[in-house]
Every structure is written in C-alpha cells, then in structure tokens.
Amino acid sequence: MAQADRRARSAFGFCAEPKREESKDTKSEEKTEKREVKTDAGRDEKPKAARDEKAEKAADKKKHADTSAYLRKLGQMIRARSPGVTNLGEGSAVVRFRLGASGAPSTVTLVSASTPRHGQLARSIVSGLRAPPPPGGSYDGVQSFRFH
C-alpha cells in the first residue's frame, strides 16, 4: 500500500523517489568522528612539541648550571693564585684571556693597568692558570685585579 501511495504521488508530480534522510543521530556521529580525528592528531603533535620544548629548556638549564659551576671554580683558582699582599703598592689591572679545550690559557692580553708591574703580575697570574676543560670547548673571559 505504501508503494501505491508513492506511485500515486509521483504520478501527480508531488515528488519523485523519496529522499533518503539522514537522521540527526547519524549527522551527530559523523561530527563526533571528525572531532575525534582532529583531537587525536592534535594530541600526538602537542605532547611531542611540549616534550621537545621541555627537553630544550632542561638542556639550557643544565648548560647554564655547568657554566656557572665552571665560573665559580675558575674564580677560586684565580684567587688561589693571586697574592694577598704585594710590595708593588696599591694598584689594579685588567686582563682578557682565552682558555682552550685543555683549560690552559691560549692568549692573555693586558687591557689596562695602573702600573706596568701590576699589569705584568696580573698577566702572570692568569698565564700560569691550569683550569679544568671548559664546557663548550673554550672560554673567553675578562678578569680585573685590585692589588693591596
């Protein structure tokens, strides 16, 4: 009987074959599926990016800590080589230096000094330095001295 009604309608031009309607449930399921696909893709990428960022921050933090520890050790070694009192009188000097991969100074340059002898003393303190190998392979530094 339903087929007869359908034929009758189509004979009168009201409608052709009945249109297949998708229920709201079906549309909702498709949208949910699409959301899940997007969400799953985002979940895979976001944690990886976050892990990379965290790893980079951790590496930077470790590098900074290594450099800080090295500078503390270097300062201790320079102070240990510096005389407490000199017969040169009060004065100051500034030297620029580079430590190679072995920790030995490869260059020591006098930047300024109150007297040539204060400059010579500062150069000899840094030139005789034997530090542990610097992080990163080399270290460029500037050291000022105040002599009493």
Q: What does the model show?
A:
The chain is α+β, with helices and mostly antiparallel strands and 148 residues long. The chain has one domain (24-147): Fusion Protein Consisting Of Minor Coat Protein, Glycine Rich Linker, Tola, And A His Tag, Chain: A, Domain 2, CATH 3.30.1150. The chain contains three helices and three strands. The chain has helices at residues 2-12, 24-81, 116-127; strands at 91-99, 105-113, 139-147. It has a three-stranded antiparallel beta sheet, with helices on one face. Strand 1 (91-99) and strand 2 (105-113) form a beta hairpin. The chain is elongated and about 65 Å long. It starts with a helix and ends with a strand.
Concise synopsis of the structure shown:
The chain has 148 residues and is of the alpha+beta class.
Determine the CATH topology.
Answer: Fusion Protein Consisting Of Minor Coat Protein, Glycine Rich Linker, Tola, And A His Tag, Chain: A, Domain 2
Query: Strand-residue fraction?
Result: 15-25%
- Strands of the biggest beta sheet: in what spatial order? 2-1-3
Largest sheet: 3 strands, antiparallel
- What is the overall shape? elongated
- What number is the mean pLDDT? 80
First-residue to last-residue Cα separation: 117 Å
How many H/I helical runs? Answer: 3
Structural class: alpha+beta
Q: Based on the structure given, which CATH architecture is correct?
A: 2-Layer Sandwich
Radius of gyration: 39 Å
What is the N-to-C order of secondary-structure elements (H for helix, E for strand)? HHEEHE
Runs with pLDDT <50, length 5+?
Answer: 1-21
Helicity level: 40-55%
What is the CATH top level name? Alpha Beta
Tell me the number of structural domains: 1
